[in-house]
Amino acid sequence: MNSVSHPKTKLSISRHLKILAITLMIVLLLLPFIALLPWAFSKSWYFPDLIPEHFSLRGWRAVLAPRSRLIEGLINSTLIAGVVALVSTAIGLFTGRALGIHKFRGKRTIELLLLAPVIFPTIAVAMGIQVTFIRLGLANTLPGVMLVHLVPTIPYVSLVMGGVFANYDVQFEDQARVLGSGPFRTLFRITVPMVKAGLIVAGLFAFILSWSEFMLTQLIGGGSVITLPLLLFTFVRSDIQMAATLAIIYLLPAIAVLGLTARYMTEDSSAVGGIGVV
Amino acid sequence: MTSNVKLIDVSKHYGGSSEPLVIDRINARIDSGDLVAILGPSGCGKTTVLKIIAGLLDPSSGDVLVDDKSVVALPPEHRPVAMVLQKPLLFPHMTVEENIGFGLEVRKTPRVQIKERVEEYLERVRLPGFGRRYPSELSGGQEQRVALARALITSPSVLLLDEPLSQLDANLRVEMRELIRQLQQDLGLTTIFVTHDQEEAVSMADKIFLFLEGKIAQQGVARDFYTRPATLPIAKFFGTKNLISGSVNGDQFDASFGSISLPHSFKFRKAMLMIRQESIEVGLGAANSFRGVVEKVDYLGTHSLVVARVGEDKVALNAPPYLIVEVGSVIDLRLPMEHLWVVEDPT
Fold first, then answer.
1. Which among A29, A125, B144, B268 would be 20 to 30 A from A46, CA to CA?
2. Structural domain range at position A95
3. Residue A60, domain member (yes or no)
């Protein structure tokens, strides 16, 4: 009897642990965001008040005023993240295909080199690039910032797509070719649709990475390219209500993207394969 | 529209030139309208040959001619061939209709015409009304038929099939075999198919190319492979049970149990006498008759498989089902001269 009941208790313990872990995760993730709300909707919030004494929209008025450069930051952030997502996904389609399908000598080394910009401190990478970009006239420009954002996004996208292509049968392309389809048509009619879910997940990842990039934008943009994280950083030091309000605006696309990715990740299991690699 | 195919000294090795040859100086001629089987065990290079004809692989040397024009410089999409690979490989994001029409869509055929032709080919592969389905809603046999329709609709001059039946279960395979043969004859289409299943090759093909270790070991009609194999490995591949060692002496063969008259002389000495077990007769005759002792009997309904010891050798034969044979009894065998064949014993 004992030996029968024993695993049962064990199972329920692990079940409880799992529920506890998930609850802890949600609380830890959400708590900082909840703390934003009182800041964003009050005039002041002093110790030892549990909730602010006076409700106020001052933060929102200040952020939405033209002086705050919110619109400029929003446009820049969206534009940069959009272009970066598109370009890095297009590159990741090919690098990922090569990594996922071909076996070649030095593949491990190349995978490691791809990760290098992620492993090394951003500031070290950015300093080297800045010198070159100044010489090329790319410093302090929108295209310059977009280019430098590709440094961290391409590795991620390549590895995600590498995982997707590891579960992909390249014979589909051969089949299309022997049916009379040229290489370009095969790419757009067969390859891209077959890894579509993976491309979307990878693209959304790249969007979020670029959207939240601070250091690279600051160094290469040199203050002339204003994005949301830059504005946020300024406000954090000067005006906590504005910072909290902006943080909420800043978070919305990220949450939307998370929701979309979750949908695609559950919709097509082949796309999830890529996430496992990262 | 149908064409002949010639392979001239085609060789292929992967990697550097020091790598071993996958196929070694293949020469073959496939006549217009023929259904030809490339038969061989796995890893003998037969799929490589097909991929070279399709343009999915470049030969390391040699030439491929379709209607006496070289095609090796052409990319696969510009060759007058269509290929069905081992797996059906239906594009999962397209319906059956779109899959079948793909080859026409690529050739910029007008939509209305594509629709008509797709209907026609759905009929041909006996899947009318399946157009709107997705590949994931089909069974293995249905997928394979869609794959076949998708290749045929492009009106290729040559159809290449890479083990198209290997993933199907036994009764479906027979059905598909008949369908392929019928479509091929209706369209008069030159067809080359690869298989490791000799029964498949024998039942379908006008001509068989037997591949062993990257070379064409023998080519010809099916019967030749059973009754006149060129070498010992071929005889074994085609399931010859009776291989009696001995030596050739003009048109005589000296075995452990006596001398046997051959239909004609063979040029080698150390050899193996072969006779299909279904060609041995029970009972005494004028020539080539021997007495043996029954060692094993398996009654199989249509015949009994009997193994008898004759001298130092064992001989297998199919005895008629009405003949009652007992283990340990004496049996008289006749080896009809016209069914005898000799292959060289390389040892």
1. A29
2. 68-265
3. no
Q: Report how many domains make up chain A.
A: 1
Q: Is residue A194 one of the residues assigned to a domain?
A: yes
Cβ of A179 within 8 Å of Cβ of B87? The answer is no
Rounded Cα distance, B11 and B333, in Å: 47
Contacts B92 to A, Cβ<8 Å? 194
pLDDT class of B191 with cuts at 50, 70, 90: very high
As a whole number, mean pLDDT of residues B303-315 equals: 91
Nearest to A179 among B55, B75, B154 (CB): B154
Among the residue ranges B94-103, B163-172, B313-322, the one predicted with the least confidence is: B163-172
Is A102 strand, coil or helix? coil
CA–CA separation, B164 and B78 (whole Å): 23
Q: Where do the DSSP E strands lie in chain B?
A: 5-13, 21-30, 35-39, 61-66, 69-70, 81-84, 158-162, 190-195, 207-212, 215-220, 243-249, 252-255, 258-261, 270-274, 281-282, 289-299, 304-310, 313-319, 330-334, 341-344
Q: Given pLDDT bands bounded at 50, 70 and 90, which one contains residue B133? A: very high
B213 pLDDT band (50/70/90 cuts)? confident
Q: State the CATH number of the domain containing residue A193.
A: 1.10.3720.10
Chain B residue nearest residue A197, CA to CA: B93
Q: With respect to residue A166, please indicate whether it lies within any of the assigned structural domains.
A: yes
Residues of chain B found within 8 Å of residue A194, distances taken between Cβ atoms: 91-93
Q: Tell me how many residue pairs between chain A and chain B have CB atoms under 8 A apart.
A: 62
Residues of A in contact with B154 (CB under 8 A): 179-180
Question: With an 8 Å Cβ cutoff, are B75 and A185 in contact?
Answer: no
Q: Which residues of chain A have pLDDT under 50?
A: 1-5, 268-278
Predicted-assembly ipTM surpassing the 0.90 threshold: no
What mean pLDDT do residues B126-149 have?
92
pLDDT at B287: 82
Query: Smallest CA–CA separation between B14 and chain A, in Å?
Result: 14
**Amino acid A120: pLDDT:** 81
A269 shares contact with chain B (CB less than 8 Å): no
Residue A18 domain-assigned (yes or no): no
Cβ distance of A175 and B107 shorter than 8 Å: no
